[in-house]
Specification:
Length: 411
């Protein structure tokens, strides 16, 4: 198989995997919203924010830096320090979140445990990516969502009065299945380092931290920029129901990012392994065009859907105005996803951190001004403002790092 043929095969597999993931996730969201209502969906989204905080912190040592460092050392060296850090990050991040009242303290144990499982699955997926096992990485994501959907359907069908706790049990079971599968894949497809290739755990952890702190700071800040509104709305006068409405619209936004999120890991992997600036820019520009076009088509489709269709599908009203408020964030986020992964691939993680930080500050300022009166719609406008600030910052950083004018990067 030629390199170009392999690239096309990986692109198709990534898009197919993302499509399956989208279908499974959409089915789960519809099932939850129609069964548990806006308040139930809001509570679930708030708890899942905690899981994302755990995985955000765990990524400092057990995240995407593994892919970048595969050029410097055998990837098997990262397994021990990565798993030690996963346990630490699960406890620390959940503790900080609950102390600051950013997360619901009543679900401390659940968030920490499932966050650890999710972090381990992501870590194993990054190890597979480092070994160019892209299809195995994609399969893990689809497996967890598929397992959750099957288990959830079974639980809800056999429960007379479904509750949020039923969903949480199904989520934990699906993560356990994906966790076991990830271990099997790593054992089968990733060789252990030879005696000559082994590096001391402390030294590996130091390298992971050196590169990971910049990369993951950006990822963690980005996650908070995307999801902080769920907590802010849940604790605002509008309450957890508004958080549920916003979460549905935001899941729709993430669905619009189907193509960007499928292509972004490929941009990262190929940029990290490519020394020619012209080759990597050509590849990223091509993927950026696909990402923006795919998102724009999805956005137009979402905007054409009337409110009564949204309310019929999900079981409550108020979703479409939030989708409209997130429209600008859709395009800006598609651009940011591709450009950020290119910058990570050339080791310029700090720009992702700085621009994500700028986006988060923008979100917090505008959300404080717009959520009290606007509720979920105000939160959507705040998210769009943050996305625009981040996208502009990343484009400027991309131009600076590759010594190429922005107009040549985009056209």
């Amino acid at each position: 198989m030629t390199p170009k043929t392999q690239e096309r095969s990986e692109d198709r597999h990534a898009l197919l995997s993302r499509l399956l993931l989208l279908l499974f996730t959409t089915a789960i969201i519809v099932l939850n919203s129609r069964t548990l209502g806006a308040s139930g969906q809001g509570e679930i989204a708030w708890i899942q924010l905690g899981i994302l905080m755990v995985t955000g912190l765990s990524g400092f040592l057990a995240g995407g830096t593994v892919v970048f460092l595969q050029k410097e050392m055998h990837v098997g060296n990262v397994l021990l320090p990565g798993h030690i850090w996963l346990v630490i990050s699960a406890i620390v991040s959940t503790g900080i979140g609950t102390v600051l009242q950013f997360l619901p303290a009543s679900h401390f144990v659940f968030i920490a445990a499932t966050g650890w499982l999710q972090g381990a699955i992501i870590f194993h997926g990054q190890v597979l990516l480092a070994e160019r096992k892209i299809k195995s990485h994609n399969a893990l994501q689809v497996l967890q969502a598929g397992a959750l959907l099957v288990i959830l359907c079974t639980v809800f069908a056999n429960t007379s009065e479904p509750k949020v706790t039923d969903f949480l049990r199904a989520l934990a079971a699906s993560l356990a299945i994906a966790f076991v599968a990830s271990i099997i894949l790593v054992l089968r497809q990733v060789a252990l380092p030879s005696k000559e290739e082994r590096i001391a755990t402390k030294q590996v952890a130091r390298r992971l931290w050196t590169y990971g702190r910049s990369a993951q700071t950006g990822a963690l800040l980005q996650m908070l920029t995307n999801r902080a509104n769920l907590s802010l709305l849940a604790q605002a006068p509008a309450g957890v129901a508004a958080s549920g409405i916003y979460s549905i619209a935001f899941y729709g936004l993430e669905a619009m990012w189907l193509i960007p999120r499928a292509l972004a890991p490929l941009v990262y992997t190929r940029t990290a392994s490519e020394n020619s600036k012209d080759v990597r820019l050509t590849h990223t520009k091509r993927q950026l065009g696909k990402a923006v076009l795919g998102t724009a088509v999805s956005l137009v489709g979402a905007l054409l859907i009337p409110e009564n269709i949204y309310s019929w599908v999900f079981g409550f009203e108020g979703i479409r105005p939030v989708v409209v408020g997130l429209a600008t964030a859709a395009i800006a986020g598609a651009i940011s996803s591709i450009v950020a992964h290119h910058l990570s691939g050339i080791g310029q993680h700090r720009w992702n951190a700085w621009t994500s930080g700028a986006g988060l500050v923008t979100l917090l300022v505008t959300a404080a001004a717009w959520i009290p009166d606007g509720g979920a719609v105000g939160a959507a406008h705040a998210a769009s403002a943050a996305a625009v600030v981040q996208a502009i910052g990343l484009l400027v950083a991309w131009s600076k790092c590759e010594l190429t004018p922005v107009r040549k990067l985009l056209f």
